[in-house]
Design brief:
The chain has 434 residues and is α/β, with parallel strands linked by helices. Helices cover 45% and strands 16% of the residues. Helix 10 links the parallel strand 4 and strand 5. The longest helix has 17 residues. The radius of gyration is 22 Å and the shape is globular. Bound molecules: uracil (URA).
């Protein structure tokens, strides 16, 4: 097969066959196709698109380009949850224990990621002693005995995506629905769960800014997951302002613990009970979505979700006492306050700008080699719609470096708009695609 012919076919608007797509992925992963030819194909795809069948073939080939986890030895319907990423999104840390407490095993491989804060594994590493680098056998054993585990995604999962994403990033070919769908879903499908609930974010702090784009991505991912034999659903949820009040690593774990104790912020509590409710339903432990929500709620009220979280932390070497003693988390040496310089309402709180401020405080990475400061981040005192008086505390910045704290504070100030009127309320959950 001549790779130039494949480029030419897509350039001229043709539909690639399964064989051509599989050849591209296996030869590119093996280093037999140079980056300049792969880039040319990516640009042709960017302009001409992939249909859903081509996207399915691409996803499947990418999934098989690395290790594919086999979780079949773990009894029950294993359910995974994936968020397309947002500011202050710590729902996995709430939802996974609620599901496990209701008998739904959660085996989660999670990335570290670039951006506003660390990924879920960075956040968990804020717990003293917590290990995220487990072998497959230990990972499965913990899911079997404790009901849940969260580990760092192995470099061998969807190996082609690692290489291709890096190439897309530097060739301006990230923003294509077929390429985005195959990139996300190849990793999810290789992680081995039986069912996947997606949380596709929309709004200023989201990868997909408009509801229309978020809906399209959700529909494509649900379709590709189903074609691959998985039970699927996608929630489309708001990311206009940050989720909850805490943005950071240890800061977010503390807020997740508060939510499991029944005293978390309203938005994170509501989203967690709905996502967990759906996962409990799709995982076969409730006969309807509503019953799943009731079960998730009960796991907060009766403390079983929190007990589940403690057992999971202990199983991975962490100190479960952090659920009762927040001083055991890494502490920031610098704390700065942002005060309102006028009265009215918070008429906007830009999630993306809060995320940038969090990154500047040290909580997130700009380059993948960067360390994250586990104690750094932001706690918001006021959110969109809240009334404010001059001098009220809007937010606190936590850091371990005076310069970083000041830079974060300056950016954070620009995230808040104080006006005479509250903003129009946006739904927390726009729709659920099944
Ligand atoms: N996240 C991914 O993992 N892949 C993409 O292509 C876009 C976002």
């Amino acid at each position: 097969m001549q790779f130039k012919d494949i480029i030419e076919k897509k350039r001229d608007g043709g539909k690639l066959s399964r064989e051509e797509i599989e050849y591209f992925i296996s030869a590119y992963t093996a280093g037999d196709i140079p980056d300049y030819q792969a880039s040319a194909l990516l640009m042709a795809v960017y302009f001409e698109g992939l249909d859903r069948e081509e996207t399915f073939y691409l996803t499947d080939a990418m999934k098989r380009s690395g290790d594919v986890a086999d979780l079949s030895a773990i009894p029950g319907i294993k359910v995974d949850k994936h968020s397309t990423g947002g500011v202050g999104d710590k729902t996995t840390l709430v939802v996974a224990p609620l599901c496990a407490a209701c008998g739904v095993p959660v085996a989660k491989m999670s990335g570290r990621g670039l951006g506003f804060t660390g990924g879920t594994v960075d956040k968990m590493e804020a717990i003293p002693g917590f290990r995220t680098a487990l072998g497959q056998q230990e990972f499965e054993e913990i899911v079997r005995s404790v009901g849940m585990s969260v580990i760092g995604q192995s470099a061998h999962i969807a190996a082609a995506d690692k290489k291709l994403y890096a190439l897309r990033d530097v060739t301006a070919t990230v923003e294509n629905i077929g390429l985005i769908t195959s990139s996300i879903m190849s990793k999810k499908l290789a992680s081995g769960s039986d069912a996947i609930v997606l949380d596709v974010k929309t709004g200023r702090g989201a990868f997909m800014k408009t509801l229309e784009d978020a809906r399209q991505l959700a529909e494509w991912m649900v379709d590709i997951g189903k074609r691959s034999g998985k039970k699927m659903a996608a929630f489309i949820t708001d990311m206009e302002q940050p989720l909850g009040n805490g943005v950071g690593n240890s800061i977010e774990v503390m807020e997740a613990i508060d939510t499991l104790k029944g005293r978390g912020p309203a938005d994170i509590t509501e989203l967690s009970r709905q996502l967990a409710g759906y996962m409990i339903y799709i995982g076969g432990q409730a006969s309807s979505f509503e019953e799943g929500i009731e079960k998730a709620e009960r796991s907060i009220k009766d403390g079983s979700g929190l007990r589940q979280f403690r057992a999971f932390v202990e199983a991975q070497g962490g100190d479960p006492a952090i659920t009762e003693d927040p001083s055991l988390f890494p502490q920031a040496s610098v704390v700065l306050e942002l005060k309102a310089n006028g009265g009215g309402y918070v008429s906007a709180l830009d999630a993306e700008t809060v995320g940038k401020a969090s990154q500047l405080s040290g909580a997130g990475r700009a380059k993948k080699e960067d360390p994250v400061d586990l104690a750094a981040g932001i706690i918001l005192g006021k959110k969109a719609g809240d009334p404010v008086k001059e001098g009220d505390l809007l937010a606190r910045v936590y850091a371990n470096d005076e310069g970083k704290a000041k830079a974060a504070l300056e950016v954070l100030e620009s995230a808040y708009v104080i006006g005479a009127e509250p903003p129009e309320t946006r739904p927390l959950i726009f729709e659920i695609i099944e």
